[in-house]
User: Fold these one by one.
Assistant:
Number 1:
Amino acid sequence: MYRQLDVDRTIETLKQLVNRISERFPESGLAGVASDLHTAAGETRERVIWISRPHYPTRIFVGLFLILMGAIIVYSAVMIVNDIDDEGLKGSNLVALLDGVSNELLVVGAAFIFLFGIEARIKRTRALRILHELRAIAHVIDMHQLTKDATRVIGASSLTTESSPKRTMTAFQLTRYLDYCSELLSIVGKLAALYAQSLPDSVVVAAVNDIETLTTGLSRKIWQKIVQLDAWTDDQKDVSDILSSSVAKKDV
């Protein structure tokens, strides 16, 4: 039960995160990105189901084509046998027979390899197109946290220019905002993993690993900012406790 990712539970987790972001930052662009990701996750359910199921139209086409090839092979074999019966099995006929059989076997073998891989290639192409969308969403999430500078909140950089972005968040709000970005990136990686789970193709798995590496790297940058904010918040609490202790001693 807990050995595979569940599509519905992943989407449910994302829905809760969308609600949390919308409630705390209702007018933010991050809320819009989260909503779009939730829409994409809903589409993921249908796509993952489609990928995991057999593609019967393709299989029917391959089956009919193989039947046609088999009929052609049987017809060719009958024609060769008739020629041998009419002319006898001479050296030249034997060479021609072996040459014709070997050529047909090569063609049939190549056709089998190609036909049996059609379904996997169709699913792979569709999965890679969707994974490209998830990769783009990850970069969009990273753009929303790009200007959220922790040093501005803690006062390490107070100089601004005319082009500097407006920063009105408190340390707590900025921490929550950055944490939401990190959670969204994590869910992007889980949505990508659903495709590798449904289609264990080497190309798809490699693309999923690239997305997980990307989201992990972006999340690591975010957590560096969160650590800065947490350290500054702890220092502020220590200072506040010291001041409160000093005031209490004076009152005594």
Number 2:
Amino acid sequence: MAEVAEEKVGENLEEKVKELEARISELQSKVEEYLDQWRRTAADFANYRKRVEKEQAEQTKYANANLITKLLPILDDFERAFQTIPSHLTKLTWLDGIFLIHRKFQYILEQEGLKPIKTEGQFFDPFYHEAIAYEETDHYEDGQIIGEIQKGYMLHDRVLRPALVKVARKKPAPQPQAPEEEKKVMEEESHAGEDSGD
């Protein structure tokens, strides 16, 4: 009887050990699952934080775009005024002061990332330029910019205002008249001469 009792205790212990091993295995798989979820969540959060930081940097970089756009007409006015100054006034000291104010204004805008769009000698690019006039000419290549009406500006790597430009177009080559058209012209001229002779 003692042997039977020992056997039962041994079987109970084996069952308990198997149950505990199964429970440990189940808990280990849950631990791995939770750890994997935690890693994914941590990676998602790190990506989210990087994205938010990038968006904030972009927002800060272009935060002054609206204000700078409103200041561009003042810059245009300065440049138009300087183009119309009579030569006898260029020696006046107060005019030098206005030139300095203009330069400081430009410098501040440049520090914020503003730079003019190049047009001289460039070919028309609808991303940077807006064509407001075309001129037929043989002196420039087709599509080449031949005049700047209003300066365009970039703010860092974005177009803030496209340049308004005049673009060259090749003159169309004169079309040679077809032999039939020449005959018609000659006949019309000869009929006109006959009619006037009557």
Number 3:
Amino acid sequence: MLAKGIAVIGSTTIDNIVQGDRSWFKIGGATTYAGITYSRHGIKTLAVTNIAKRDPEIIKKLRKEKIKVCSGQTEATTRFINYLDNDNRRQKIKQRAAPISCAQIRNALEGLNLVHLGPLHPSDIDIQAIKSLNKGDLYVILDAQGFVRSVENELVYPAVSTGLTDALRISNLVKASIQEYKAIIGFYQIDLSGLMRRFKINEFIVTSGEKGGFVKTIFEETVQYQASKAKKADSVKSIKDSTGAGDIFLAAYVISRILKRQMIANASQYAAKLVARHIEGNYIEPKTLALRDRIE
């Protein structure tokens, strides 16, 4: 496939990362991690998102990475608190941006042929906007994450949203973590092959952190892949932060597999290596993402 450009759709976030006695702020969301990955591979990239006017630093950082920002009106920028404990993560959503609208997506997609849906919660993207997409001339990539969680009193819980059905219906390629995958299979009471046939999904990626993962095709082929191990940090003060790893993996896989027509094994290993570099702090460097400390 020749890439005319890609629109990454979802919240761009202010992330407060808390690990042990350390806390810092940075930009996040699929628009950031996947967006930067696409852009650094020479692909015309748009971030379709909602960022409050009082947060121009976020837009400036995306534009510095040659990402065009298509932001709508919103009173707030989505804010997460991520509590990290090795590979375990607890999350709170302190505030949410306005849902991304049909009009935003329609205007952004003109001339593009790739869409990467990266919602962070079920109402991140207006469901009518998702329904408006079709598999005709568009290749739709879905990170299922936002549709397998709910938010109650700011806390994020695992739960499959009814909006997932509409999202799967228009998607060509889907990614889910192992926990999300199990929740999806349980929700639909169907095996993965049946799910893919039902929704006409070409490829389904299941990631499992340091355990690797697998890719299944609609033709019943299953390809396992191994995770690439990040090098040990030189300093004991270095922090292992895997935030955004799934977004980078999916974007790198799409670049290698869909755009460069690599075999699944090669594409998944390329994506895994890029993730390892990121966790080392050698891909999207911490200073690229860092935001000034905020008290709000």
